Amino acid sequence: MPLPPYPLDPGLFARAQSLLDEAWLSKDVDLAPVLPTVLARGVGQDWHKAGTFRHHLVGVARSLALWQQPRDVRLLGLLHSVYGNAFVDLVKFDASTERAGLQALIGDEAEGLVYAFCTASRREFIEKALAGQIGPDGTMPLARNDGGRVTLPARTVAAFLIVSMADTIEQWSSWQDDVYSRFPAPNDHRPQAVHWAASLWPGPMRPSGRMLHQINRLGLALQHPALKDLLPMPPVFAHCTQPLSAAADAASAALYWSVVQQDVPLVDVDVATGMLEQAVRHNPWVGEPRMVLAQLYLSAGRAEDAAQAADSALAAFCAWGNSWDKRVAWEAWVAWTRILRQSARQGTWPARLDKLNNLALRDGG
Question: Where is each DUF6817 domain found (predicted)?
Fold first, then answer.
């Protein structure tokens, strides 16, 4: 059975290449003027899941830039937690005294989105989005964290869905699967003293076995008739049109991790190759299983299969702008995939292990 195709979009690849430069944010005409103010608040020193708060904010903004979101939505991504929220106790701007300053810096429209995102109940928003509880006109009533109520207009609902997708893919790994089990449902029934092993950060850094399914459902919510034409549709899940079931998400992650941990026969590549092929069939929307599969194909002398797998892996990485497997950064996954793609096209692969250390991109990949 052939693997699900994932064609590489040249325009998306070009945008992704521009974001591989660490200085991309300083060149963004909309985001660069805001960066010094954000950095001055110490975001590069704050812990946040798989890195620092700066890494997180920049990673979310990168996906939104790749998805060609308008200025106010990209600014929301860069500033989405700066007033604090119910999930992150990182208040970088005091909403009671500093809103006017942020409005002067980014404009009333963008600041209004940031304020609403930080003060509306994120948990209720996710619960309602997953349950399809979006009004016929695209609006959504929500509780506020201060006890009040707010009704989000349709464009704000669409922006929150897209930013939530980028926010989740940037940060979620198995550690959060364990400590935030069943999110967005409350998880206040598991004391740490009993479940201490799950609390040890950063844990084994497995890809999440459940959150891609949730991101998929947020994307599918963008197909609501009152929402679908308000903002550019993220290019993931075939522009948010194809479902990914919870079972398929879990099975793919388990198969992939079994190979990565070498919990399979190691003499031949056949078993590992078969497991990864099945992982891709379960979940064709992430790049890492396809990338590892490309390397196994190269090791087995299957250059044509390796080229197809590497192209598909690169297409997936370019669609997300963040990695699913958080052990290394998105840029590193893209870089190694381009090495595999180049080697497959040339029909070459090192016969000696030490020569893997010498590989370099030569043809632009």
Answer: 39-122
324-365 confidence digits (pLDDT tens): 999 999 999 999 999 999 999 999 999 999 999 999 998 766
Count of other CB atoms within 10 angstroms of residue 281: 17
Length of the chain in terms of residues written: 365
d(CA 241, CA 261): 33
Residues near 183 by beta carbon (within 8 Å), at least 6 away in sequence: 126, 176, 214
- State how far the Cα of 350 lies from the Cα of 353, in Å rounded to an integer: 7
Domain boundaries, the chain: 245-282+286-365
Residue 261 contacts by C-beta under 8 Å, 6 or more apart in sequence? none
Cα separations in angstroms, 159 against 153, 156, 238? 10, 5, 19
Rounded distance between C-alpha atoms, residue 347 and residue 45, angstroms: 45
Predicted TM-score (pTM) of this structure: 0.96
The helix (H) or strand (E) run that includes residue 150 is strand 149-152
CA atoms of 40 and 112, how far apart (whole Å) = 22
What is the C-alpha separation between 179 and 279, in angstroms, rounded? 25
